[in-house]
Design brief:
- The structure holds 2 protein chains of 2 kinds.
- By secondary structure, chain A is mainly alpha-helical.
- Chain A has one domain (2-163): Arp2/3 complex 21 kDa subunit ARPC3, CATH 1.10.1760.
- Chain A contains 7 helices and no strands.
- Chain A has helices spanning 2-20, 37-41, 48-67, 72-91, 104-107, 109-132, 138-163.
- The longest helix of chain A is centred in the C-terminal third of the chain and has 26 residues, at 138-163.
- By secondary structure, chain B is an alpha+beta fold.
- Among the domains of chain B are: 1-29; 171-253, Thrombin, subunit H, CATH 2.40.10.
- Chain B has helices at 2-10, 12-29, 45-58, 63-94, 263-279, and strands at residues 106-116, 125-127, 140-142, 147-154, 159-163, 171-176, 180-185, 193-200, 210-213, 225-234, 240-247, 256-262.
- In chain B, the strands form 2 sheets. In chain B, strands 1-2-5-4-3-12 form a 6-stranded antiparallel barrel.
- In chain B, a hairpin with an 8-residue loop joins strand 1 (106-116) and strand 2.
- The termini of chain B are far apart.
- Classes of the chains: A mainly alpha, B alpha+beta.
- The interface between A and B is large, with 35 and 37 residues.
Chain lengths: 167, 280
């Protein structure tokens, strides 16, 4: 119960930070950080794949409602939650059956960085492809995608270092 | 049968994944077909309420600049009123005043911007007035600097505006002087510029000309400021000119807007409806 409430508070805080502050950032007119993926990246594995997907879907949908993106973030966040176990396995070997909270402390900075970067890239590709949904804008789309990945990555690493799970 | 159930059980996360993605994409691609889905936008009761509460805090930032702008606007309007009154007086002197039946068919509702985006390929603006304030979809929205967009979806207290900075926006404009017509489109990225399309090549337009609303659509009266011609280039098919327009409205710091209700528009729409019903 306590951990659920804690998770809910993080969930709501991240949505508000995303909606009121981060969505207003367009560095050089292109880059917008999507810090909310940090929540999906660092959910404890004890939640299981289905619950993680439901959390991610709810979060994406909330971002969609506030930002008028009608389902783009719900789709991309769900995808990130779905591929998450595979991504973790790519960078981190764990003992079977043992649950843990993905993060710098549990995985090590290098492994977490690789895992977060690949997850963010996948998530952002879906976001920007759905947002532009046209081949006429490949160049601005690529610039937005690349610069936003860098910015999101910086935010995620910073927040993970400050607020990341400690056991 | 048992094998099938076992298969589904074993791969239940795949089913959930496909279900959630299906819901997301359904919401995305059918949004335009359902007026009632306004609650899924920033103009919904819950989302709008949260955004308005936030706006009450952030609204204090930049108040000095905003006040100065409003004072300047006041002064300009004052000047205009004075000029018009003088003109009216001079007309009244040598004309008999007749009862005018053609009243100004536009009403104006002031509103505050509670949410605004400029960096996406499809931007929206949320304002704090809704159907209870007499706002309906397809009304023009302007700021003191120029045209902003058209109302798109309305809830009771909030309205979602489709600004010029949206790929779905399409505004009928004309260029002064010369009065050549074209459609204003936005092709992304730059919140300060839009493109005027379908302007014939023979049209006499030069950099620095003023782009105003044409009055062809029912949303806006004629002659409202849209922007200034910034560059002229032949279009890809070489049949017309693509004109880059520097927008008069600064979308990034938009705070106060006015919604223009066109009482004549309803009449026009009803007439059209009646006519189509009769011909069917």
């Amino acid at each position: 119960m306590y951990s659920f409430l804690r998770r809910l508070v993080t969930f709501i805080t991240l949505i508000l930070v995303q909606v009121f502050i981060l969505d207003k950032i367009h560095l050089f007119g292109y880059a917008t950080p999507m810090l909310y993926v940090w929540f999906i990246l660092t959910l404890g594995t004890d939640e299981g794949r289905n619950k993680t997907m439901l959390w991610a879907f709810a979060m994406g949908l909330a971002i969609d409602f506030f930002g008028n993106t009608f389902g783009i973030h719900a789709a991309s966040a769900t995808l990130l939650a779905f591929v998450r176990p595979a991504l973790i396995r790519l960078f981190f070997i764990r003992n079977d059956g043992e649950t843990f909270v993905p993060g710098i402390q549990s995985m090590g900075a290098g492994a977490f960085r690789g895992y977060a970067l690949l997850g963010i890239v996948l998530h952002h590709i879906v976001v920007f492809v759905l947002e532009y949904f046209s081949f006429d804008y490949l160049v601005p789309m690529a610039i937005s995608l690349g610069s936003s990945v860098v910015l999101t990555m910086l935010f995620v690493m910073a927040v993970e270092r400050i607020f990341g799970h400690r056991s | 049968m048992k094998g099938l159930l076992e298969f589904f059980y074993k791969h239940n996360h795949w089913l959930l994944f496909l279900l959630l993605e299906g819901i997301s994409l359904f919401l995305l691609f059918t949004f335009n077909d359902y007026q009632g889905r306004v609650w899924m936008t920033s103009a919904g009761t819950v989302t709008g309420g949260v955004l308005e509460a936030g706006q009450r805090v952030t609204g204090y930032f930049g108040l000095t600049a905003e006040n100065r702008r409003l004072a300047e606007q006041n002064a300009a309007l004052e000047e205009q009123v004075f000029g018009l009154r003088q003109m009216l007086d001079s007309i009244a002197l040598d004309h008999l005043t007749a009862e005018t039946e053609n009243e100004w068919p536009f009403s104006v509702v002031p509103a505050t911007v509670i949410e605004n985006s400029t960096g996406k390929p499809n931007n929206f603006i949320t304002i704090n007035k809704g159907t209870l304030d007499g706002i309906n979809p397809d009304m023009g929205v302007i700021s003191s600097d120029g045209v902003v967009g058209v109302t798109f979806r309305c809830s009771a207290h909030y309205t979602l505006v489709l600004p010029i900075l949206n790929s779905k926006s399409n505004l009928s404009c004309k260029v002064r002087p010369g009065d050549s017509f074209g459609y204003l489109e936005w092709r992304g990225v730059d919140a300060r510029n839009a493109q005027l399309c379908d302007v014939p090549r023979y049209a006499d337009i030069s950099v620095g000309d003023t782009v105003v609303t044409s009055g062809h659509s029912a949303f806006f009266p004629e002659g409202l400021m849209v922007g200034i011609v910034a560059a002229i280039e032949p279009s890809a098919d070489n049949l017309s000119n693509d004109i880059s327009v520097r927008l008069a409205t600064s979308f990034a710091c938009l705070k106060h807007v006015f919604v223009i209700g066109n009482t004549g528009a309803d009449e026009r729409r009803e007439l059209l409806k009646e006519a189509t019903e009769k011909t069917e």
